Amino acid sequence: MTFASNQWSRLLAFAVAAAVTGMLVISSGQTVGAQSEESTKGLQGTWRAQGTLLNCNTGLPLGAPPFPALISFARGGTATAVVSNPAFQPGQRTPSLGAWHATGPQSFSLVHEAFILFDGGIFHKGTQRITETIQVNGDQYTSVASSQFYDASGAPIGNPGCAMSAGQRIEQ
């Protein structure tokens, strides 16, 4: 092997190694950037929220005390919410499970359902289905929601209710 061909082989090996390394750095940077952007600007994660019941016709608060909730949005579009609304008796409502998807850059749609395990107060055994539209702004979100109750046979009970909430991302 001559000096020129040996130098050519080294140069070719260096160029291939540099190209592969560059592709790995670029692709890992894109992945890290996407994860970082999603964790600071997307919906994925766990949020502490405060809900307020609204008059569906006027959009004004009903006067019932606000209630806290914890909501987790998982990668892949699943959601879990734990609501502490004092209108429910202890143990009457299960956590809700649901699905979410993006509707815009910082806009999301969420549908989740919970079981109402027994009759009590103003609630009857069956399910509650909540549909929300969520707007995220950094580590804050706001939502508007409608809620429909169903009896154990799946028939709607009463008219849908309305609510709004504001959430703060929980971080370490």
Describe this structure in a few short sentences:
The chain is an alpha+beta fold and 172 residues long. The chain is 23% helix and 46% strand.
Layout of strands and helices, then pairs:
Layout: H1 3-41, E1 45-54, E2 67-74, E3 78-83, E4 96-102, E5 107-116, E6 126-137, E7 140-151, E8 156-169
Antiparallel strand pairs: 1-2, 1-8, 2-3, 3-4, 4-5, 5-6, 6-7, 7-8
As for the CATH topology of the largest domain, it is: Lipocalin
The assigned CATH architecture of the largest domain is: Beta Barrel
Going by helix content, strand content and strand pairing, the class is: alpha+beta
Number of helices: 1
Q: Count the strands? A: 8
What's the N-to-C terminus distance? 60 Å
Number of domains: 2
What's the level 1 CATH class of the largest domain? Mainly Beta
Oligomer: single chain
H/E order of the elements? HEEEEEEEE
Low-confidence runs (pLDDT<50, min 5 residues)? 3-40
What is the molecular shape? globular
Fraction of helical residues: 10-25%
In the sheet with the most strands, the strands line up as 1-2-3-4-5-6-7-8
